[in-house]
């Protein structure tokens, strides 16, 4: 799987909204929006995982800079995977089980 990092989201953007937008470029495996553990508000970014790298690249090329919920999205290849646990200060890495 290949992950994209999507920045500049509003607090009201949902995983379902992102899935609907990104699935136009290929099958989406997962959408993850990190949230503050106390307030449950979005941190303003998300990870969208595709099954195939070429689908992720197509989505990145097409969606970087579009407006969604009044914000200009910044879409790039994720440098790291999802966090291994939810503790602050943890290292980001890719699970060996993926």
From TrEMBL:
Q: Source taxonomy lineage?
A: Eukaryota, Metazoa, Chordata, Craniata, Vertebrata
Q: Which GO terms describe its molecular function?
A: RNA binding
UniProt superkingdom: Eukaryota
Annotated GO biological processes are:
mRNA processing; RNA splicing
Record has Nucleus as a keyword:
yes
Keywords, A to Z, come to:
mRNA processing, mRNA splicing, Nucleus, RNA-binding
Would the keyword Transport turn up in this protein's UniProt record?
no
- Which Gene Ontology CC terms are recorded? nucleus
Compartment(s) of residence: Nucleus
Taxonomic source organism? Marmota monax (Woodchuck)
InterPro entries linked to this entry? Nucleotide-bd_a/b_plait_sf (IPR012677), RBD_domain_sf (IPR035979), RNA-bind/splicing_reg (IPR051106), RRM_dom (IPR000504)
Which residue intervals define the domain RRM in the entry? 2-80
What is the name of the protein in this document?
A: Serine/arginine-rich splicing factor 2
């Amino acid at each position: 799987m290949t992950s994209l990092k999507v920045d500049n989201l509003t607090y009201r953007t949902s995983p379902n909204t992102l899935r609907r937008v990104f699935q136009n470029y290929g099958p989406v495996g997962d959408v993850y929006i990190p949230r503050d553990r106390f307030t449950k508000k979005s941190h303003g970014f998300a990870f969208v995982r595709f099954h195939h790298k070429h689908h992720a690249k197509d989505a990145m090329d097409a969606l970087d800079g579009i407006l969604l919920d009044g914000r200009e999205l910044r879409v790039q290849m994720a440098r790291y995977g999802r966090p291994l646990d939810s503790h602050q200060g943890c290292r980001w890495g890719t699970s060996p089980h993926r």
